[in-house]
Write a structure and sequence with these properties.
This protein has five helices and three strands. The protein is of the alpha+beta class and 111 residues long. Strand 2 and strand 3 form a beta hairpin. The mean pLDDT is 87.
Length: 111
């Protein structure tokens, strides 16, 4: 999967406030089960499991079977891909704004 597709999947997954909350909860705990996460939320374990599956598909969490339970942990690499994309886009805007500033300064001097 190329970086653009990965970044799109991350932003799609993080577009939902419930999934963002789950990412934060898993990150704070280190790892968690759907049951543990659902205990803190006004939703069912099945709803949490569905959201965790969407996060896993986007590459934001990974699951590990430990005995009879499935534990989820954050995979920060995908967040890093999204952050790098934001930095790249931001730097392009910085360059454009700097060029605009130079152009305005030249126009002011030319008056």
């Amino acid at each position: 999967m190329d970086t653009g597709v990965r970044v799109e999947a991350v932003f799609d997954a993080l577009g939902d406030p419930g999934r963002r909350s789950l990412v934060a909860s898993v990150a704070a705990r280190g790892s968690a089960t759907a049951t543990e996460l659902a205990a803190e939320l006004p939703v069912t374990r099945q709803a949490v499991a569905k959201q965790l599956a969407a996060l896993a598909q986007a590459g934001l969490v990974r699951s590990t079977k430990v005995g009879r339970e499935t534990r989820f942990e954050l995979t920060p690499e995908r967040l890093g891909d999204a952050a790098a994309w934001l930095v790249e886009v931001g730097s392009r805007w910085d360059e454009r704004l700097a060029a605009l500033g130079r152009s305005l300064a030249r126009a002011k001097v030319a008056r």
